[in-house]
Structure formats: C-alpha cells, structure tokens
Amino acid sequence: MRARTGLLFVPYLLLLLAFLVVPIAGLVEISARNQSVTSIGGVGLTMANYQRVFEGFYLDIIFDTVRLAAIATLIGATLAYPLAYVIVRSQPLARTVLTCLVMVPLMTSVVVKVFGWFILLGRGGPAVRMLQKLGIEVQTLLNTEPSVVVGLVEFALPFMVFSLVPALDRISPAVEEAAANLGATPFQTFRLVILPLSASGLTSGALLCFGISSSAYVVPAIMGGHAVRMIAQQIYDDVLVAFDWPAAAAFSIALLVLLSVLIFAALRASRRATDV
C-alpha cells in the first residue's frame, strides 16, 4: 500500500525536476562562466560573477530592493487588514461584491495598471495638479521611490487580502464580543486577539507580497525609471543590454537565495510563535 502511495509522487517529482531543478542548475552553470554564452571561444569557470553581486553598485541595488519590498509589504498589510475584516464580517451579498472588487486588479494586466498610475502621477496628471493647487510646486511624482512603492502595494495588495480572509474567517465573532465584555478597547482586541489568531494568514500574505514586490520588473521600470533600480531591472539590463548572461544568472541566484532565506526565517518564526 505504501509503495502504491509513493508512486503517486512520481509525476510531481518529475515536474519538479523538469521545471525547477534543471532550470536552476542551468542558471548556476551559466553564472559560473567567465564570459557570456553569446561570446565566441572557450568558456572557463569562475566565481567572479558572485563577487560582483557583493560590490558597491550591486549591493546597493539589493539593499534598495529589500527595503522597498519591505515597505510595500508593511503598507499592504496595514491596508489589507481592515479590508479583509470588512469582507469577513459582511453579509453574503456584500462579501461577494467586495471579493469581486478585490479580484479585479488580478484580472487586469500589470502593464495597464502601471500606465494608469503613470497617467495619474505623471506630468500634468490629477495628483500633480492637486498638489499644485495646494501650493506645492511639483512637476511629476514619477521616478521616485514613493511612486514605486505605490505601484508595488497596488500590485500585491489582493494577495495579502486573500491570505488574511481565511485566517480572519476562522475567528468567531463571539471571541471579539467576549474581549469587549471584559473591557478591551477595539485596538486592544485587535492587538491581543485578532492579530495573534490571524498570524498564519499575515505570514503567508507577507511572504507573497514581499516575493512579488522584490521580483517586480514592470512597476519599477515604468514608475521608477532610471532613478530607482531594483534587482529585476538589473537582470534585464545584463541580459538584453550588456549581454552579460553570467552576471544576470549570478544576480538571479542571489535573488533566489535571498528570498529562500527570508521565507525560511519567516516560517520558522511563525512556527515558534504558534508553538508558544
């Protein structure tokens, strides 16, 4: 019986090997080359490409990517909690409508959404005109870190909401009523009751948001321009502009390792908190 059950994992393992292990192994092999795969001549092996990742320019890009992704994740969680709570506590019809509204961004092309922000925050856009009427002289809000964060938050927010909804749905309203009867304020109820009980959903949503934000390309490329650099933009430039595939592969492996370490640390911390 166990042997038959084990056979059920064979197709999964084959897919994992074909679409995950083999591509990553190919990236590792390319990253260790001493010249681009487009070059003519012999190809040797080197670790210089990984050393470049930790040089000043590339290290700044990694730091900026982590920082902007963390800010976007924090803002996304702050906005998603009340929205997810309203969805969970709404009547069936209102819950369906709100869920559909949250799903709309997921069904819209990221390019369309980013160009919408481009028009809103760009030169002569509604946001710029409003600030000018308030006496704030500004020509454009694009090509700045805040504009990139706005785009990342809008892109990742639905994933945070849909991660929190199941976690909040498992919390009975009677628990909140009991906390209120014991004299807890709404903020205390959230901090001491709702937040700990929904920590699993928050962790899942934060990991999704951080992963999506840190690997985003379209948002920083259009809304940040050359003023804001993130890892995906540098990988794109190394591949299609500089034709430096080994450097791009090394940067890709660095991003993969970074996300893996952060995900492992977050899951470990969440498990410890749950055990306590």
Summarize the structure in words.
This protein is an all-alpha fold. It has a domain at 32-89 and 142-275: MetI-like (MetI-like fold), CATH 1.10.3720.10. It contains 14 helices and no strands. Helix 4 (56-89) packs across helix 11 (199-214). The chain is globular and about 70 Å long.
CATH topology-level name of the domain at 32-89 and 142-275: MetI-like fold
Q: Give the proportion of residues in helices.
A: over 70%
Q: Which structural category fits the helices and strands?
A: mainly alpha
CATH architecture of the domain at 32-89 and 142-275: Orthogonal Bundle
Largest sheet: none
Keywords:
276 residues; 76% helix; globular
Give a concise summary.
This protein is mainly alpha-helical.
Give me the secondary-structure topology.
Blueprint: H1 2-7, H2 10-31, H3 48-53, H4 56-89, H5 92-103, H6 110-121, H7 126-133, H8 145-169, H9 173-181, H10 186-197, H11 199-214, H12 218-224, H13 231-240, H14 245-275
